[in-house]
Amino acid sequence: MNARTEDFIAEDLRYDWSADEIAALFSQPFNDLLFQAQTIHRQHFDPNQVQVSSLLSIKTGKCPEDCAYCPQSVRHDAELEVDPLMPLDEVLAAATKAKEMGSTRFCMGAAWRSPKDKDLIPVIKMVEGVKALGMETCLTLGMLTGSQTQKLKDAGLDYYNHNLDTSPDFYGEIISTRTYQDRLDTLEHVRDAGIHVCCGGIVGMGETRDDRVGLLQQLANQPQHPESVPINMLVRVEGTPLANEQELDHLEFVRTLAVARIMMPRSYVRLSAGREAMSDELQALCFFAGANSIFYGEKLLTTPNPDTGHDMALFENLGIKVMQ
């Protein structure tokens, strides 16, 4: 173990990362970075265990936002089947199936900019129903008020997902219909209600490494690290403004995961969107870099994901056990 790694372990949790410090992590030789990330990962987690979540789109399409990566926006020409809010029995059937496949957390996403109070009434019943199955619950519904987050907490919600997407400097290139501060305000409401935070971002949208530094700085310098940090590789969807964006170098993606692990050592770092196009070897590198959570199932809201049989075969080959 080198002295630099020992320093990071001794400091453990930090909330004061400078951009220069983060950039220095990214710039390390690849083997040194992965060794540091794996060493820190082993201080807090079983290195051969992964947490599995399932994600269901409970309301699809017609979102008024203009997020450049998202096929659910009404402003884009992606071919997407629009579906209203799902009935409770269908949601619970999907949650039951997810539990049988090994998922311990069931995440539900609805394409709202910010739900109205009346929209939460059926969603709260979904949260209560999934909790009754013995699963952790997670929602992503857009921006929330303080009173709305408290209602969801009272219903038993465990996690709320609200990604920052990218750095503050690059954010305006991706989204214009809500501000970065809007996102931070929702995260503050979620924290104040006592709900766990799931918050990460998307890489490969044309941002620079400095922007990836800026995203991780924003995540790690929150008053409390997000309990779950999804790192998404852009899925390029026809009809969206980023459909023809150049693919991010795969080793740069692994570096991003490794730096996230070092900066947020006790968080679950989730290997999220983009896995369907990743080789087994690349995913193995991601797990070695400190990723220890995935979305399980053949679809992530509207984009493809590896089938469960392939995932289980990969886990068996790597000697990875699914967290119960």
A few lines on this structure:
The chain is built from 12 helices and 12 strands.
Which helices and strands, and how do they pair?
Elements: H1 3-11, H2 19-26, H3 30-44, E1 49-59, H4 88-100, E2 105-110, H5 117-132, E3 136-140, H6 146-155, E4 159-161, H7 168-171, H8 180-192, E5 196-198, E6 201-203, H9 209-220, E7 228-233, H10 250-263, E8 268-271, H11 280-288, E9 293-295, E10 299-300, E11 303-304, H12 308-318, E12 321-322
Parallel strand pairs: 1-2, 1-9, 1-12, 2-3, 3-4, 4-5, 6-7, 7-8, 8-9
Antiparallel strand pairs: 10-11
Describe this structure in words.
The protein has 324 residues and is of the alpha/beta class. The chain is built from 12 helices and 12 strands. Strands 1, 2, 3, 4, 5, 6, 7, 8, 9 and 12 form a 10-stranded parallel β-sheet that branches. The protein has a two-stranded antiparallel ribbon with strand order 10-11. β3, α6 (146-155) and β4 form a beta-alpha-beta unit. α3 (30-44) crosses α10 and α4 (88-100) runs parallel beside α5. Residues 1-10 have low confidence and may be disordered.
